[in-house]
């Protein structure tokens, strides 16, 4: 990997285009290097993973809305598939629908470093564009390897949340780069597409703060949609604001700390394999990633606490990110509100730890049910839980040493009789370095579990067989990466009012 210093430049400075971060990313995207076998295997795992969570979310209202919007954009030739329904649709709208299905339950892969991210958000738009363009399975693998690589590399070196910018600002450029690789575009076209994609996908973090709404699911899908449109314009010869990150009125100067701020972005050297997907990790539980290890910790601790009603207080010592995003450091009263939205409860480690401690499990529907959140004993326990930042957990969160890097917490449970019970867990059980790392078997089991009762058995088998043949798939066969549902299943989706585009 090569480290690249990124800072603002005055318009009058001599700043050659080849030194722009967008140009360096475009060079990585255009590099014809082959995809290594372990990267290829993990790409297939993550396509299966995305299908799993899409099956679990397909009947929810936000996903139904996005699907209805896509249905208003059917096409007679080309086009992409939408999860659950028959037909071909405009690629960018298919990307929106499928991306929303993937993101709705906060249940797919993650990468955490200087910034947060869900690199699997690259998959829906790149797959949709591949289906529309008639790309092969091999082309798709190369595009997804680039999408993951650029997303992870930006997340390693450039923090967005410090300045309250949403993490999807890294997603637009990564999707554009991935599409450039898949479509074999030249460096200039990819460069222009990256600039446009960043420019049109920058938003504030209010989508993940306070009264969190269903837009949290739409936001990454919208970024993927914008990236497809950016690539389309760039292919037609249109340009982008430049330099997009480093300009005097660019992204860094006005949104990421000002003209004196500097960032270091690692990128593969020419000819270097794209392996970043191997540093990402998926979820066993449908909750914000920083709650994965605490859920496993709560499940482990409950056997040592015979009577939960005798708990006086619980303090979770954890990282800066966990404390301030999903803990009491956020100062969000909604995180203690039993009437809060599912999206808000998903970002309350206090609620999550309480329910996992009581139930010994975490379920993508039961654990968020309104009646579950309103249990008096749960509310009582919930309000006894707080978080504090521990500098050591913060250090481990940012460590580049895989033996030290951690996303967990230490729990101190004080009982009413004065007894203190403590335990800690650094990594979720499903993490690559955890107690039960996910491999192909676990991804397939997750898919079968979440697809049960939603996707017919024969369709499940067809999808799994198709996904695992990804390197061999022709352009015509890529449509098989989307699953169709029986009409009686789709009929269970909520009834929706007509929108403008109906």
Automatic annotation (TrEMBL):
Gene3D superfamilies named in the record: 2-methylcitrate dehydratase PrpD
Entry keywords, A to Z: Lyase, Tricarboxylic acid cycle
Catalytic reaction list: citrate = D-threo-isocitrate; (2S,3S)-2-methylcitrate = 2-methyl-cis-aconitate + H2O
Extent of the signal sequence: none
Domain spans labelled MmgE/PrpD C-terminal: 285-470
EC number per UniProt: 4.2.1.3, 4.2.1.79
Keyword Lyase: yes
GO MF terms, alphabetically ordered: 2-methylcitrate dehydratase activity; aconitate hydratase activity
Domain MmgE/PrpD N-terminal: 20-262
Transmembrane segments: none
InterPro entries, A to Z: 2-Methylcitrate_Dehydratase (IPR053420), MmgE/PrpD_sf (IPR036148), MmgE/PrpD_sf_1 (IPR042183), MmgE/PrpD_sf_2 (IPR042188), MmgE_PrpD (IPR005656), MmgE_PrpD_C (IPR045337), MmgE_PrpD_N (IPR045336)
Keyword Transcription belongs to the record: no
Known pathway: Carbohydrate metabolism; tricarboxylic acid cycle; isocitrate from oxaloacetate: step 1/2; Organic acid metabolism; propanoate degradation
Quaternary assembly: Monomer.
Family under the similarity heading: Belongs to the PrpD family.
PANTHER family referenced in this protein's UniProt entry, alphabetically: 2-METHYLCITRATE DEHYDRATASE (PTHR16943:SF8), 2-METHYLCITRATE DEHYDRATASE-RELATED (PTHR16943)
Protein name: Aconitate hydratase
């Amino acid at each position: 990997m090569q480290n690249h210093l990124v800072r603002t430049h005055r318009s009058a400075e001599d700043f050659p285009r080849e030194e722009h971060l967008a140009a360096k990313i475009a060079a990585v995207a255009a590099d014809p290097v082959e995809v290594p076998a372990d990267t290829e295997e993990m790409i297939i795992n993550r396509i299966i993973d995305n299908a799993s969570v899409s099956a679990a979310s397909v009947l929810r209202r936000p996903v139904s809305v996005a699907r209805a919007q896509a249905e208003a954009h059917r096409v007679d030739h080309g086009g992409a598939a939408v999860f659950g329904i028959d037909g071909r649709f405009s690629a960018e709208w298919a990307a929106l629908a499928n991306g929303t299905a993937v993101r709705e339950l906060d249940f797919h892969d993650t990468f955490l470093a200087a910034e947060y991210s869900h690199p699997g958000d690259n998959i829906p738009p790149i797959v949709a564009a591949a289906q529309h363009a008639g790309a092969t399975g091999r082309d798709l693998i190369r595009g997804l390897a680039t999408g993951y690589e650029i997303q992870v590399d930006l997340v390693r070196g450039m923090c967005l949340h410090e300045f309250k910018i949403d993490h999807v600002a890294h997603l637009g450029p990564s999707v554009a780069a991935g599409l450039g690789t898949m479509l074999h575009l030249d460096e200039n076209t990819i460069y222009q597409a990256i600039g446009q994609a960043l420019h049109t996908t920058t938003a504030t973090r209010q989508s993940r703060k306070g009264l969190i709404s269903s837009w949290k699911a739409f936001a990454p899908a919208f970024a993927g949609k914008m990236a497809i449109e950016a690539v389309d314009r760039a292919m037609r010869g249109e340009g982008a604001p430049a330099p997009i990150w480093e300009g005097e009125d660019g992204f860094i100067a006005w949104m990421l700390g000002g003209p004196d701020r500097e960032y270091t972005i690692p990128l593969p050297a020419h000819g270097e394999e794209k392996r970043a997907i191997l540093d990402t990790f998926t979820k066993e539980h449908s909750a914000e990633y920083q709650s994965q290890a605490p859920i496993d910790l709560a499940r482990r601790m409950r056997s040592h606490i015979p009577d939960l009603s005798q708990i006086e207080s619980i303090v979770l010592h954890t990282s800066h990110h966990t404390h301030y995003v999903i803990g009491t450091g956020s100062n969000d009263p909604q995180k203690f509100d039993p009437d809060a939205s599912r999206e808000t409860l998903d970002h309350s480690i206090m609620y999550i730890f309480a329910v996992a401690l009581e139930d010994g499990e975490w379920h993508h529907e039961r654990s968020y049910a309104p009646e579950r959140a309103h249990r008096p004993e749960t509310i009582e326990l919930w309000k006894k839980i707080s978080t504090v930042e521990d500098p050591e957990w913060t250090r481990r969160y940012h460590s580049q040493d895989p033996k030290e890097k951690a996303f967990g917490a230490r729990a101190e449970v004080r009982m009413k009789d004065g007894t203190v019970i403590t335990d800690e867990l650094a990594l979720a059980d499903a993490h690559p370095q955890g107690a039960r790392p996910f491999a192909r078997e676990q991804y397939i089991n997750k898919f079968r579990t979440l697809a049960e009762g939603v996707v017919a058995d024969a369709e499940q088998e067809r999808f799994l067989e198709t996904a695992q043949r990804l390197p061999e798939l022709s352009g015509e066969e890529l449509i098989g990466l989307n699953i169709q549902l029986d009409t009686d299943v789709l009929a269970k989706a909520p009834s929706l009012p007509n929108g403008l585009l109906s």
